[in-house]
Protein 1
Amino acid sequence: MKNKILNIKNLSKSYDAFKVTDKITIDLHFDEIHALIGPNGAGKSTLIKQIVGSVKHDIGSIILDQEDITDLTDVERAKIGISRTFQVSSIIPQFSAIDNIVLSLLDKSNKTFQLFKSIRNNKELYSNAKKILKEIELLEKSEISASDLSHGDRRKLEVGLALAMDPKVFLFDEPMAGLDENGTNMMINLFKKIKSNSPILLIEHDMDAVFALADRVSVINYGKIVATGTVNEIRQNELVRDVYLGYEI
Ligand SMILES: Nc1ncnc2c1ncn2[C@@H]1O[C@H](COP(=O)(O)OP(=O)(O)OP(=O)(O)O)[C@@H](O)[C@H]1O
Ligand SMILES: [Mg+2]
């Protein structure tokens, strides 16, 4: 248990008779990126939503840093260190990029309801927000409204919001989707840097990114984990080749 920051056991969710996730057991070690791959509709996003707490699972348990969080709400889970799921909707479109980051920093420190004027004068807060914008290569666009950012830049901003929360674990659902090559490379380097502080459970369809980043890979198919191993082990696994036929592993 000691080397595991996140420990998921037998997590299951059915919609009527359809088992979307079926007794999923998966863990996340300190200092690692664990990629979750699988075909469309396999249950990846649902699993992340169950960990975040936005979808209630039927059975199973979730332990974060030796604490049982199975019965906590999504808000309680976010407070103790589960990064929010990757959804463009958590961005406030009419706010600038930097104000979105500032809000996330305030959320982390429970100061969301400070007067706006005093927030604006908080140099330390804005300086921390700028550091995050620099990490995600959005510093030049800090004053642009989120609604005017390109799709790729909004994905970067989402990662920035997660960074601002300084969570115990990151759960990223297709963070590279819509990024160009530069954006993808930036994200790969960023993830390598941040994983020692907060390990990452990563859903990603970009296999080059997965193979460049993952310490371990788990493959999910029809709601079940069918293999877990290192990148090399997964590449050589025949069952995985079957599941991924067409993906050219
Ligand atoms: N609220 C829901 N009600 C009924 N079925 C659902 C619900 N949410 C998801 N599903 C179904 O569960 C299955 C798994 O969905 P999920 O979004 O977890 O897949 P995924 O692995 O993330 O796929 P993708 O790679 O396309 O993002 C799909 O068949 C989906 O239609
Ligand atoms: Mg999905």
Note: The longest strand covers residues 4-15.
Protein 2
Amino acid sequence: MSRVTLRGIAKSFGLVQAVKEVSLDIPDHTFVTLLGPSGCGKTTTLNLIAGLEKVTRGEILLDGISITDWAPHERGMAMVFQNYALYPHMNVYENMAFSLKLKKVPKAEIDQRVRQVAKTLEIDQLLDRRVSQLSGGQQQRVALARAMVKEPKVFLFDEPLSNLDAALRTRMRIEIKKLHQQLKTTSIFVTHDQEEAMMLSDFIAVMRDGIVVQYGPAAEIYRRPQHHYVATFIGKPRMGTIDGNLRVDTSSVNFEAKGMKLSWPRGGANMPLMDVPACLGIRAEDVRLLDTNGAASSDTFTGEVGLLEPLGSDTFVEVIRDSMNLTARVEPDRQVHVGDKVAVQLPRNKLHFFESVSGRRIDI
Ligand SMILES: Nc1ncnc2c1ncn2[C@@H]1O[C@H](COP(=O)(O)OP(=O)(O)OP(=O)(O)O)[C@@H](O)[C@H]1O
Ligand SMILES: [Mg+2]
């Protein structure tokens, strides 16, 4: 069992509130990512969990027991840092064995554990090398190995892949995922890369300014973002949005923006009536590029093709009108040219709406 619970934790450094209020329940065996832009409090949150920083307020529980005041080494957690933080004067073997020696683990057991983990991570050929003689990717593996030999209850990762080049980064990402599937150790991973978060995580906590804006299964964060901020932070390309006004009357749902009016029948008598400034959002894969040449109807947006982004597997087509733009994903062999007048269909069941003022999702 290794379930981590954060109850209203906060951390201030003088006047800076690095973490304002974070409450999360991280179930046993899960892989959870703290995702957010630079400065939003990810590292501070992780350091609080590790015990490297003391909370200003709140409580941290491990399997229901408060560990808020425990020293880092009492918590049974292992951290992998962005800069690896290896001991440069030691070789790989010594780096891996170091924490076990401190804990007075018998020599034979240390040897067995180091060699076993080295084999799993395919660094068994490197055990005698000094870490200063290793490539970035190899150092990354050693940092991972050093955490693994501790057989921790919880892994904490602080952007461990951000110093690697794109190809290596993708490969290590897959390895970390496989490793988690194999070990099933509760893992808390920090990144600002939403793709990395989507690919690795069971649950994602999207953070902003020291708080968690949404916490849930990765697929739900993608499909039902509860906030405009989450909707546009997650997903590539960025979710297309149009500012306008949303009105639900007794018979219809209407979204109006500059020179654009969409209308659908009201979903049912339970749908709340409203008339509010709102933002419409739709993901590129949900926008349908129509063949008709710019014919407007009650659920289409018409415009001109701006940018074309052919990626090989798909092409992203930007459709612009006035200051509004949406992106549609199309098959790579579709004939589309910059400047074409086009219409795109916005299927009602694929639309997201957010209150303009609060950014909160409107469920209709
Ligand atoms: N020791 C400290 N003293 C003062 N302010 C700090 C300290 N550590 C962090 N902060 C501030 O707290 C805020 C959150 O920092 P934190 O390092 O947790 O962000 P982060 O989300 O990890 O960012 P990044 O993606 O850049 O690593 C920032 O405004 C930062 O400047
Ligand atoms: Mg950080």
Note: The mean pLDDT is 93.
Protein 3
Amino acid sequence: MVARRVSSIEISGIRKMFDAAPPNTVNLGLGEPDFEPPPVVLEALARATREGMNHYGPSAGLLPLRDAIAGRYAVKEPTTTRENVIVTCGGSEALMVVALSLYDPGDEVLVPNPGFVLYPAHARLLGAVPIPYSLRASRKYLPDLDELERLVTDRTRVLIVNSPSNPTGGVFPRSVVDQLVAFADRHDLTIVSDEVYEQIVYDGEATSFWGRTDRAVIVNSFSKTLAMTGWRVGFLLAPRRLAPDFNKIHYHIMACPATPIQAAVLAGLKAGDGTIEAMVREFRARRELVVRLLKQIPGLDVVRPAGAFYVFPSFEWPRPALGVATELLSRGVITTPGDAFGSLGASHLRLSFAASRPNLRKGIGIIRTYAEEIRAG
Ligand SMILES: Cc1ncc(COP(=O)(O)O)c(C=O)c1O
């Protein structure tokens, strides 16, 4: 018999749906860049394995990589050093380390609705209670501080935030970050800020919670920025009072992150952000294309995403998101039903524009034909 906690979460039905996709289906369901890591990074990985970097390393990560990460954040908070940094196996492991370290059974965790699927799942696995807070299109997918005040109780321990957001593409302006910090101060909450799309923004910059409060833990990843989702490497940035405990948990899960991959990531950081900037330029152009095409579709409403590579249109058709996504799949385009990300994702689809422009045109064309058929009755 497995432990009871296993039944507290479900395997997403979405993957099964993808497996049933007909050949030549256009994939707008992707949660990863359709780019490859920069050549300098690929070469550094090959060199590291040839030169014998094939063994366990320090649990919190290779010192030069921790120093390089800390250096980037020292611009926001000058006291940042390697002691604040733990290299993890992706943002996913970082989120689990945070959950294992911070949640006791019965604790309440404020999670975005809609939001990334791991936040409520990790809480449930640990006997904590995810309390969803709303991100609505009518508020440009920004949190409602009055609602947060109503949701907080004496059991609330953690506020999870994700800007730029998966699935909405919303980015918190600095004023919202400051309001959330003040809210966390008032209620003595730890902020867990998932910033994995931090560098994928289209209008200005994303505001990190690092350096704006000493109660924030940052989850970040190289998956999206260096187009290496399959490499499984990310990091945690934590105040010094928490970092040793996080590292203890991390050690008991992973021992250490993959050694040669860290060497390759370090080469990527040293090479600068040119590749990321080129990728973001292309995503920006695709965002314009996608928003323009979606706005022409009857029955769809779309908020222009400010970051990440997702758009989260709502539809007015009286049918469930899974039903719409399944019908679209049978016509040749993969989308993600919005309610996979929480109840407020009902009547939404998540489309990824990490797909080529011809595929975006083709996929959105299929959605348009579908919408026109519904309108015609
Ligand atoms: C918001 C968010 N956080 C964290 C992750 C996890 O990323 P990884 O484990 O690949 O670093 C993802 C991946 O899709 C994500 O969208």
Note: The first helix runs from residue 13 to 19.
